[in-house]
Amino acid sequence: MSTVTRIYLYKRYERFWHWSQAALVIVMLFTGFEIHGAYHLFGFRGAATYHVFAAWTLLVLWAFTIFWQFTTGEWRQYIPTLKKVDAMVRYYLVGIFTHAPNPFRKTTTKKHNPLQRLAYLALLAMVSPIIWGSGLLYLFFAYWKAVGADAYLSLEGVALAHTAGAFMMLVFFIVHVYLTTTGHSPFAHIKTMITGWEEEAPES
Questions:
Q1: How does pLDDT run along the chain (204 residues), one tens digit per residue?
Q2: Is 55 buried (19+), middle (13-18) or exposed (0-12) by CB count in 10 A?
Q3: In whole angstroms, what is the distance from residue 110 CA to residue 7 CA?
Q4: Bridge partners for 5 per DSSP
Q5: What is the pTM of this model?
Q6: Which of 134, 141, 142, 136 is CA-nearest to residue 168?
Q7: pLDDT at 176
């Protein structure tokens, strides 16, 4: 009789920064869309205050996390690879709906499948620079004239770029949440990120 295999994948700090980052991103999405007038909850001033506070808090969290990633060697988990990308695409498009086995098996040295690594690369190389670059420009708008930035930047353009980045982040967030339901049970991956332990269902 097959038994469930358990491996300890996510360390305590890894889980802490994951959930903290998720909470801060949610706060920034909600407050950001309120700032744009999508709804009224905190009021413009309150939403703007919470938005900026969450952004600075996330930057501090990232500083600690980058230090942790490099001192522990966990940064290697994010090195992009094209190996088995085609197999993962077929799995997510077809295999997952026909109960085909997942072609990728997590280990302590390989926690992210090839598609996840490419998604994180896109997030770091494209989405994050758009959001943070435009966000910091927007935040320090009062200093544009002093450094001559007002000659080639417009507040409307920066705000549009920031909003576009926010929608990209929202799409990433939705897809990320959806993929958490693709384990051997709908909440298996979420449970793993809470406890740190990955449970692999026995093969039939």
A1: 456 688 999 999 999 999 999 999 999 999 999 998 888 999 999 999 999 999 999 999 999 999 999 999 999 999 999 999 999 999 999 998 888 988 998 999 999 999 999 999 999 999 999 999 999 999 999 999 999 998 889 999 999 999 999 999 999 999 999 988 888 888 889 999 999 999 876 554
A2: buried
A3: 12
A4: 200
A5: 0.90
A6: 134
A7: 93
Fold of 5-200: Fumarate Reductase Cytochrome B subunit (1.20.950)
* Contact predicate 6/184, CB 8 Å: no
Distance CA 10, CA 140 (A): 37
- Asked if 111 and 72 count as a contact pair (C-beta separation under 8 A), the reply is no
List, as own/partner pairs, every contact residues 135-139 make where C-beta atoms lie below 8 angstroms and the sequence separation is at least 24, other chains included.
Answer: 135/55, 135/162, 138/162, 139/52
Six-digit token string for 114: 């090839």
The residues near 46 (Cβ < 8 Å, ≥ 6 apart) are none
Gap between the Cα atoms of 49 and 158, Å rounded? 19
Nearest to 114 by CA among 153, 147, 144, 85: 85
| Rounded Cα gap, residues 59 and 28, in angstroms | 13
- The rounded distance, in Å, linking the Cα atoms of 130 and 168 is 10
